[in-house]
Fold this sequence. Notes:
heterodimer, A: 253 residues, mainly alpha, 0% strand, B: 340 residues, alpha/beta, Rossmann fold, four-stranded antiparallel β-sheet, 11 helices, 34% helix
Amino acid sequence: MRHYFTILSHEIRALLYSPSTYIAAVFFLGVMGFIFASILDTYSKTPQETPPAVVFFQFFWFPVLFMVPLLTMKTIADERRQGTLETLLTTPVNTAEVVLGKFTAAYLFYLLLWGSTLGFHYILQLHARDLRGLDPGPLVGGYLFIAISGLLFIGIGVFASSMTRSQPVAGIFTFVLLILAILGPRYLGDLSALSGSTLGPLKGMLEALQISTHVDDFTHGVVDTRQLFYYLTGSTLALIFSILGVEAKLLNG
Amino acid sequence: MAEIPDITIEVSHLVKTYGALTAVNDLSFTVKRGEIVGLLGPNGAGKSTTMRILTGYLPANSGSVRICGHPVASEPEATKRHIGYMPENNPLPDDMRVSEYLWFRGRLKEMPRAKLRARIDEVLELCDLKRNRHRILGRLSKGNKQRVGIAEAILAEPAVIIMDEPTIGLDPHQIIIVRDLIASLRGRMSVIISSHILPEIEATCDRVLIINGGRIVAQGSPADLRHEIFGSTSYRVEFAGERDTLADRLKDIEPTLRVASLGDCGPDGFCVATLVTESTADLGEKLLTALPAHGYRIRSLGRTQPSLEDVFLAATRRSWDARLPDQPVNGDNRPPLPKF
């Protein structure tokens, strides 16, 4: 693991030097600001039962679907296309260190982007005359959810990037896998074929995998270890598959 | 760094297949410490594949490779510490500066920070990159990029340096610089370079391995190769005198000496003949004394060296013929390669 920090700092530096990072950050903050503003708009017209933070985090899937592919599609696919993966892997570095270093850099950047949305809540706090409904509980839960689910989403992105040498293919593959992970269980769970009693456990499982219910749980202060387990094992599995993906590509030329 | 053994690279019975295509077919060779070896072969001969297997980037199907005594397959990290590798086309990240890149690579190669700073200055000086140290890699010229690749390969002072086509795409002036640079490594590091630019290999390498179809078809120093492939020496002589009895006169000088070709005589009576002999001794002086004694007038005499190019063409062509009936890889029942 002695090369992990070398690769991590190299990746972070590459992110900070590349203009696409800043373009992505501006778009992310723009879209999130727009969502936040429209939530506040709704709240100012009619009183609501849930705090605005809960609603804000229910929109997590939108930036995730677009930001994660942009962040991760470059990681391994681009190195492979340029041929620098070959020079990287002929140093005394193992594949696990390379994949983990790239994953961590992308994850830290993902956290940084989400962290910057804290500014929205701070500004609201400063300027709202009525402070009822602005309690910090949902915020803490929401950001905890973002931090933990981010592991899985970024892991999926790195995995997709390890499968191909083309950035667009990696991006689209990530997008599809994320849609499957985020929306798939909901639509499968609604299938009428699953309503029979024999398939009950399957239906229960699909319901437990629904990420939108996880958000609600976290923002309401419920931290379920089953959900934590899902994200941690999911991301570990994605990273193991990425490592295997990089190595399998070498085997087959 | 641990003691470097006398034999730095040991390859035995290496086989690598891509599906139905056999890229490397039962390849064996060794490289001694401080030796510069050239891998020569036409496109698709298996040069790059062999190099990638040596670096541990690609796994072989069978056979073994040892770098400084460590097997590549089971101790990849130990062997990678001894290798500096520059791949074909020398891929570099476009968005880094020269010194940043070398720093990053040096850290990956486990060089201590304090030593690395001084060493980077040293290799920049060696490769004539001092003026470019703060420039961005993506904006460097091809020659400068190539030199960054070489600087990177020698950065950690590895025992083995592997360079895949180091002079591709360089202008003649830069080729000479790169060639001198490689020659300056002689005696300290083992260097394997691949190329199909023949004068290149001839100028720098102590030993040449000619590879075709994944097999070594000839090896040795350029001079040995000439003799092995052609088995004869030829002389070009310009003379005036009796043409018909020349062959008999030559037999008196050396039994195997014969006339390979005899051109038409010019208006001044001089004709050009090519003489071929299997004798390894230099017959120049004998010819110069014996022929005038028989009444011939000689205007010029020269020993013609087949260039490495001829050797290469001959070696790869004869292996091409021998390759057609595909023999089992591990059995040693291949017919000997025919003399060309």
